[in-house]
Radical SAM core domain-containing protein (Jatropha curcas), 372 residues
Amino acid sequence: MAVRSIFNAPDLRREFEEAGVSLHFIPFIWKYVIKNPNCEWNEIPDLPSAVYPLLQSKFKIFTSTLHSVIESNDGVTTKLLIKLQNGAFVEAVIMRYDTRLGKYGGKARPGGPRSTLCISSQVGCKMGCKFCATGSMGFKSNLSSGEIVEQLVHASYLSQIRNVVFMGMGEPLNNYAALVEAIRVMLGSPFQLSPKRITVSTVGVIHAINKLHRDLPGLNLAVSLHAPVHDIRCHIMPAARAFPLEKLMDTLQVYQKNSQQRIFIEYIMLDGVNDEEQHANQLGKLLETFEVVVNLIPFNPIGSLSKFRTSSEEKVSRFQTILRGVYNIRTTVRKEMGQDISGACGQLVVNLPDRRSAKGIDVLTDIEDLHL
């Protein structure tokens, strides 16, 4: 059996309970090892004597290693290539913004510089979306909750992370138990992330959406819709056949009624496929009874794997105008970051670049805090 991550909360809680050790020591251990990542277990002060041999024999501070840090030429995007203890790799991406740039409701926005971490939940993905590089890998394995949390810890040494988005490799709701446990760790001490600062993205795994609000109230839900009708959706997202659009929309109605929260709709713009005026009107009619923000995503080419072209700026602008003007749906266009390091939306596929040093960092207009 592989040695487990100290951040794998279910295993750690179970071992402590069996040993008769109070669970209150767990956040203290996490805080200490984050500040002292190279420490030995016996260096952690003030633990019950039974804890030290338990930690020594069954847990590691990190079961993953930071293999490469790749900086984008945009100066604000960093991709982390992380090697797991089974030899597989996953990617995470740090994106830096400034919430003071831009306006909301005609007024200046509060805040300041902050970082969002895009986290992976699986090695590869079984959804097979034809526009996504990760889908070309197929599904390899689920990450443990500890491996998910370790991405946040690795990233925290490079930037102060305020927001987490589960939009990296994999379908988060297909690794539901590990996802929930990892987020619960992030919400507690010592991480103390707000649920309002965590977004889970899904292609629409209906049975898991039904459970999400009950298990993790207050999170942001993002749905990768990408088409306004079922036939187009199935063409570009084969997994959508298992999640009929009508049933998905019914599920989202219930979710929104129970959560009383805005839902984020992700919509990738594919030239001649889903970006015409008729598609904008179909999408507007589909969403007009919802409280949503639609995020239009310029398609990121993925080389020879791609059968699609990027929509023109004119088409994207017209699409946005229809949703806003005709249907009064709040609609944004995602500012793409990290394309040169294959760190942008849909581009995450494992490769092994050389390690590069960090550069100076600027700040960009905020695009992730759409709930503010």
